[in-house]
Amino acid sequence: MKIAFHGAARTVTGSKHLLTLDNGTRVLLDCGMFQGMGKETESLNSDFGFDPHEIDYLLLSHAHIDHCGLIPKLVKEGFRGKIYCTPPTKDLAAILLEDSADIQRDDTKFINKRRAKQHLPPIEPLYTEADVAMALPLFNMVRYGEWKTIAPGLEVCYTDAGHIIGSAAVHVRVTENGKLTQLSFSGDVGRYRDVILRSPEVFPQADYIILESTYGSSLHEDVFNTPDQLLGWIEKTCVEKKGKLIIPAFSVGRTQELLYFLNQLSLERRLPHVPVYVDSPLSREATEVVKSHPETFNSRIQKVLKIDEDPFDFEGMQFIKTVDESKQLNERPQPCIIISASGMADAGRVKHHILNNIGDKKNTILLVGYCEPNSLGGHLMAGRKSVRIFGDFYDVKAEVGTMHSMSAHGDYDDLCQFLACQHPRDVKRLFLVHGEYDVQQEFQRRLIKKGFADVVIPEQHQVFGLE
């Protein structure tokens, strides 16, 4: 048996790990799209590093695009196996993949106009809505905590990872030649004491672990101070400077958290009378999916639901639907809050809002989560004085703020708590994925001190044998 790492290897995006059994069965863990990798992005997404025809099963941890975004391309190039995931992940993946196809169509059209002027041949999108439609019937639902036999000698079980609704750690039991081997893949590990979701669950002892490491060298700020931090940015930007507060936010998870905190401020009568616009059709659909799965909420939100039937809605909040409505937001001079996707500001409507508001010092761009260093959000977070948007450079005159308390990824303490159910000496090898290499090296040293004897950081396309 062997494992190959074809994504999220010494980087935080493009999650893809291929498990090959001794009998030739091939199981793919996630099929994510590379995002925010600059000029490398296109080439990384063009070649899987394996033949899609040869994949038998796909085990999906959750619905974020960097974990599921290349599924339609996988199907387009020959995959016809079953895709296993939790019910909320299936619901979210459907709308996220359709949105991804729309974004690629629009971005490709824009890029091809420029290529035509340069007398260059047109390019094709990675996949279309038709490819998404072919992929969706392959999804099969697995509920948390149930071992499911998907092939002779091959079982899978999902446990709640607490990252977004439906997110799971994926556990695989392989029985070959009378020997049982268990491999656990963390997916993305959420935070303990999350304001909305349940904490990550304990899981059975594993022989091999594939662990995400996004924040493996740092600690987050206390999430329960987040409403006050958010209020501070609103008062500074919208009340004092009379400007616009632009918040890039992922449509799944981050947008709902922002709406929950704003609703909390509204219930406490602390939210200034400033219009709040959620400018992302996908965010509107995702919020409806989130609300349709209250079983994923923690006990705190269950109590809130007894007094507030919709903790993601409040007076003054409006979802923007059409492109024309979105453009009108940039024409209005009045203070407002605009929450728009994507979270790394590398695609979607938020890119246009940043372009139109980055040149005015009374405005603020507030980054509320992880941004890959090569993404637009990463460049803003790094303090660049000039950034490139749609091929042109713009001076950064607007204030750029960050709120690290809102990350949906667990920090060093959370990741160690996630591993606390394991006996380190019984783990034959622990693979670190989904992290920047310098962060992973520091996390590697800490895990070795905690008793995990063999901790490795795979390179892209590297293959390892499993005993």
From TrEMBL:
What UniProt keywords are attached to this protein's entry? Hydrolase
Metallo-beta-lactamase domain ranges (all copies) = 13-233
GO molecular function terms attached to this record: hydrolase activity; RNA endonuclease activity
Q: Where in the numbering of this chain does the Beta-Casp domain appear?
A: 255-380
The keyword Hydrolase is assigned to this record: yes
Q: Which Pfam families match?
A: Beta-Casp, Lactamase_B, RMMBL
**Source organism superkingdom:** Bacteria
Q: Which InterPro entries match?
A: Beta_Casp (IPR022712), MBL (IPR050698), Metallo-B-lactamas (IPR001279), RibonucZ/Hydroxyglut_hydro (IPR036866), RMMBL (IPR011108)
Q: What is this protein called?
A: MBL fold metallo-hydrolase
Q: Which organism is it from?
A: Filimonas effusa
Lineage per the UniProt record? Bacteria, Pseudomonadati, Bacteroidota, Chitinophagia, Chitinophagales
